[in-house]
Design brief:
heterodimer; A: 256 residues; mainly alpha; 6 helices; 2 strands; rod-shaped; B: 84 residues; 0% strand; ion transport (chain A); acetylation (chain A)
């Protein structure tokens, strides 16, 4: 009775259980014992493509390989036949009415699996591929994000190397301002000194001019004083005679 | 003597027949050891037949067949007395 329930349950659950739980708890992870030792850095092996081979859907291939050297190819089958006949004949397996329903259910299951197994498998494989692709996407996105963060950090670090430009510019500005004030003050000093020197020069010029004028005046006064009255009369008569001569000469010439 | 692997670390297939009782007695029978053994068996079966890209029905089928056999063994006595 229990076997029939099991088989019925398997018939309904078979399609979705066929390729279920691909990403279950069996995925290996890097073991880490709370940072006490070196973390195991071997890369996670990829999912195997196919499971272990199984013959008749029940018996793993390893059993057949184990018996092959001693009994050849037909050994395990003979063993199976012999065992089942022994169980039947010795009534270790009792034939009850359930046996026939078991045979019918098993036959039906085998027929269904043989006919629709491949297509259902493909469908579920597609679902699995979608799941795996989604996770891969997340992984790639995470990797890309971290890579971008690393690049950003590197750029910042590179900027730090170029800080000195800023300071050089400031230093240049300050040096120029100092130079400008220095030259300004130099110019002012020059102007002030020139001012004072000009003052002295103009004073000297003025004094010399005054002396010249004074001397000229004094000489004139002396000369005028020296001319006595009699000399003056003589000079005047001489001038009148000269003028008369000149007048005669002048009259004579245009007539000729 | 250094080339011989100590008895405790041999796997079952490498243990010779005479050493079998001492090997069995040396196994870890604490609750933690037993739980670890179950976990190891589960992981081995799981990784071989179910945790693959293209699994087949045999992964589940073998478990169900083993359950059928086990339940038959449990109810064998009842079947014998019922039939007689």
């Amino acid at each position: 009775m229990l076997s029939r329930v099991v088989f019925a349950a398997a018939a309904t659950a078979a399609p979705c259980l066929k390729n279920a739980a691909v990403l279950g708890p069996g995925v290996l992870q890097a073991t880490r014992a709370f940072h006490t030792g070196q973390p195991c850095l071997t890369p996670v092996p990829p999912l195997p493509e196919y499971g272990g081979k199984v013959r008749l859907g029940l018996i793993p291939e390893e059993f057949f390989q184990y018996l092959y050297p001693k009994t050849g190819v037909t050994g395990p089958y003979m063993l199976g036949t012999g065992l089942s006949l022994y169980c039947l004949s010795k009534e270790i397996y009792v034939i009850t009415p359930e046996t026939f329903s078991t045979i019918a259910v098993v036959g039906l299951m085998v027929y269904v699996i043989k006919k629709y197994g491949a297509s259902i498998g493909e469908f579920i494989d597609k679902l699995n591929e979608q799941k795996i692709a989604q996770l891969e996407e997340v992984k790639q996105a995470s990797i890309k994000q971290i890579q971008d963060a690393i690049d950003g950090e590197k750029a910042q670090q590179a900027l730090v190397q170029k800080r000195h430009y800023l300071f050089d510019v400031q230093r240049n500005n300050i040096a120029m301002a100092l130079e400008v004030t220095y030259r300004e003050r130099l110019h002012r000093v020059y102007k002030e000194v020139k001012n004072r020197l000009d003052y002295h020069i103009s004073m000297q010029d003025m004094i010399r001019r005054k002396e010249q004028e004074h001397m000229i005046d004094w000489v004139e006064k002396q000369v005028v004083q020296s001319i006595s009255a009699q000399q003056e009369k003589e000079t005047i008569t001489k001038c009148i005679q000269d003028l008369k001569l000149l007048a005669k000469k002048a009259q004579a010439q245009p007539v000729m | 003597m250094a080339s011989l692997v100590p008895l405790k670390e041999k796997k079952l297939m490498e243990v010779k027949l005479g050493e079998l009782p001492s090997w069995i007695l040396m196994r870890d029978f604490t609750p933690k050891g037993i739980a670890g053994a179950f976990q190891r068996g589960y992981d081995r079966y799981y990784n071989k037949y179910i945790n693959v890209r293209k699994g087949s029905i045999s992964g589940v089928n073998m478990i169900l067949a083993a359950y059928v056999l086990f339940s038959y063994c449990i109810s064998y006595k009842e079947l014998r007395s019922e039939e007689a």
